[in-house]
Q: What sequence folds into this?
């Protein structure tokens, strides 16, 4: 059974940074396309970024240049480095493994 456990969320001021982690178990992590989605209150869940290997990385336009997705296959861990955070980045962030495995989510709040 696949388990995805996110960590690293919290409260940060605008312009600040956070690093999210997603620890995976119960799957052959290295062959899975992984990604991050987020869901703000009253909005649909939206795609943020995905990664298969270092040459197959995709970002949503809204985070391009500010967020960086990476993975450590030796640690079965996915990361999302978030810089220059804005209030509109406030959401629950979910780890995802293709096609349809999800973590429980971690809250990110960007506010003074």
A:
């Amino acid at each position: 059974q696949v388990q995805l456990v996110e960590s690293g969320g919290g409260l940060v001021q605008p312009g600040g940074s956070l690093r999210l982690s997603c620890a995976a178990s119960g799957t052959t992590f290295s062959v899975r396309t992984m990604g991050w989605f987020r869901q703000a209150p009253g909005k649909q869940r939206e795609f943020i970024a995905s990664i298969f290997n270092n040459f197959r990385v995709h970002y949503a336009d809204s985070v391009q240049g500010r967020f960086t997705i990476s993975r450590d296959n030796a640690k079965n861990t996915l990361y999302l480095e978030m810089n220059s955070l804005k209030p509109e980045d406030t959401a629950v962030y979910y780890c995802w493994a293709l096609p349809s495995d999800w973590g429980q989510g971690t809250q990110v709040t960007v506010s003074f």
Observations:
- DSSP finds no helices and eleven strands in the chain.
- Residues 33 and 59 are 13 Å apart (CA to CA).
- The radius of gyration is 13 Å.
- The longest strand covers residues 18-25.
